[in-house]
Amino acid sequence: MKPLRIGLFTDTFLPDQNGIVTSVALLSDELRAQGHHVDVVAPDFPEHVDTRSDVVRVDSLRYVFLPTYRLAWPTRKDFHQKYDVVHTHTPLTLGLAGARLARKWDVPHVATYHTHVESYTHYVPGATALQRHTGVVTRVMSLLYGRADAVITPTAGMLDVLSAMRVRHPVVIPTSIDPRVLQAAPAVESPWPAGKRRLLSVGRLAREKRFDHVLDTLAGLPDAHLVMLGEGPERQHLEAHAARIGVADRVTFLGVRPWEQIGAYYRQAELFVFASDTETQGLVLQEAQLMGVPVVAVGARGTLSGVAHESSGYLVAPADVNALIRHARDILDDPRLWARLSAGARDFGTSTTPAGVAQQVLDVYATVLGTEREVNFPVEAGAPPQNSLVYDQ
User: Is the model's pTM score more than 0.90?
Assistant: First the structure.
């Protein structure tokens, strides 16, 4: 394949820290390493100084409903470069702009469906009720993803969602994590008190992540201390919830830490607890397992394939706090079980690499461009396989 000019359009990028940011940054790095020109088109952050050469910033406004986020406000003057492929990663203003430019330039539009958008309607007042009664969000998403030449999703658990959007060519490509950054993290002072079992949870502190259930799990483990890495709009609510259920002295809210340090916290943790039921993949699960940390998590949609049940950890039904507590207790009380799951976590976490994922994405680009390297789309819209999980009863 000849070198391509590729535009990766995303409504969230550095200095934000989340799964989409990680995915886009690693993809850009690998594509550029293979000789392609890549622009990451992202919102401007007025006080942030870019150290990456691949970022094209677009003027932005503070997003009213998520004050730490910026909402890009693109105009014609922002786009002078025509791309061979437009690859959108989000469905907000820059995702829509990318799709519109692909049609204008008559070039392929590839989209990655990172986020189950219907689970995030509570960030727009009235949108949840409107979606429930009219399905308007699903219909709007169908206009974006249903018209794309190919749609990538990280896990098979989201194929039913894409089918409802009438997506023509869904293809499953897992999001990669670069283990080198995690493993090279310098040592940090332990945030866990001496003598306590070390629980860790990582993610944006938002309602859909269900960190309240993680705190409820902590309440059932009196010898444990929980460290929560991340920041978000639910922090005050979660701090109040911790006080209400009597675990405020056994949880440490660390806020955001630099990506280069995250591996040090995984390295010190004994168990990773995760309760979100809205993930398309759950990259923090992969990060934890890469570092050998067994996982106890809710199994729903993307997380169904994010943990090797009984090999790298355990999956439980959504909102089943008792099962989270039971499995956590079993792992913490049995050193041999912990060692087996830790080894299984490392094996499972290394199942994808950034270079391998980039190669699969290039195969998708080749297909939509009609070049010699092609990928057979493994799933036809309308007949997605159904994931199943036998939950503990």
Answer: no
